[in-house]
Amino acid sequence: MLSLSCISAAGLVAGPARYATAPSRAFVRAAVAVENAAPAGFYWGYDSSDPAAELVEPEPTPLDRLSFGRFDASSDAISIDEVHTAQANWASAIKTISAVHAEGGDFVDMAATAAGELYGYGKTNVLFKPTKATEHPFRPTAEEAMSYFVGAEAMKNDAFKGEDAGFAINGGRGWKDVTFRNHQVELLGDSAIAMGDYVFVDATSGDEVRVEYTFGYRKVCGACAPSTLSGLCTPLQNEDGKCRIFLHHSSVYAEKGDYVAAAGEAAGQLYGYGHTDVLFKPTKATEHPFRPTAEEAMSYFVGAEAMKNDAFKGEDAGFAINGGRGWKDVTFRNHQIKCYGEVAHAMGDYVFVDATSGDKVRVEYTFGYKRCGDGKVRICLHHSSAKKAKAAKA
């Protein structure tokens, strides 16, 4: 507790107490007495031993930088404005985590602070199915959620490596904006459900990605609540009265832009780019028959237009999307497989079924597979060739 000594009553005039003359900095410093120990984290703002010291602004805390909106802790009912506040807080968290990562700051700490405010982990069960999670689609614990948001590498989570690239930092590219567009919001007393879509803007390219969501928010406030069994008061789990997420399901809508992200994620799982040299000769590549880099492989799979690769335009129509027609089935037929320790080779043919016409296309392949440093088997050799149709007789 602080006390500030003023001059005697004889020196005061009518009205609020004040100094008769402007006190020096040294006088003010001397007049301040600390009656009790300062609380943890208390910051004076200047060197009190030096009267001429400049005031120093303390570094903003993660919560200061997040600038989250507040909730009405006096009521256990969730209002539509509080749903909007919860959504604005979530969007702010994604943008702030991306910004801190781009600055080289502690984005993991920022994400942990945000998650503690946004999600109900530790206070209630949380049902979380993230957008890009496939091998581990459900994240019931805070640690698994953090792995998804900041990446398995940052969380040292070997089980999730190769899947969790860090959604909150967009795999390193960052997000510069997030816009919620609610389809409908249902208010259910101390909980609420919101369904709609949000649009993410890539901080590097400016591309927009649309994702569909269902969020569930829950708020309980006060010191206790009646038990449904005994009618007695029982402690509440979310006693600070904040809206927190107990349900979060996101899914990517299949539109332009999304298939590129899906292909990039699949390529990272399937091919050894970044882990080992990859020998790749695609089926339909002629002017640029060899693709030693991940970018060149992506151009072949999703098309030069989608990858903004002018050098490959006219050649790369997007094999993975069949030039826009799509594939509805692929069947591998191995001729022979040979295993040589950490490497294996497979030769045979696969049959692709056109999603538009139903026509079948047979392509011959040789694949080489190698176990990478993370323990996962990925393609290190891929040679495909389509059998040419016979020319018609004259």
Task: Report on the architecture of this protein.
The chain has 394 residues and is α+β, with helices and mostly antiparallel strands. It has two domains: 63-222 and 238-252, Nuclear Transport Factor 2, Chain: A (Roll), CATH 3.10.450; 255-388, Nuclear Transport Factor 2, Chain: A, CATH 3.10.450. Helices cover 22% and strands 28% of the residues. It has helices at 25-31, 62-66, 80-102, 107-118, 142-150, 152-155, 258-270, 294-302, 304-307; strands at 2-4, 32-34, 127-129, 175-187, 191-202, 208-218, 224-226, 233-235, 244-252, 279-281, 327-340, 343-354, 360-371, 377-386. It has a five-stranded mixed β-sheet with strand order 3-9-6-5-4, with helices on one face. Strands 10-14-13-12-11 form a five-stranded mixed β-sheet, with no helix packed on it. Strand 7 and strand 8 form a beta hairpin. It is elongated. The N and C termini lie far apart (104 Å).
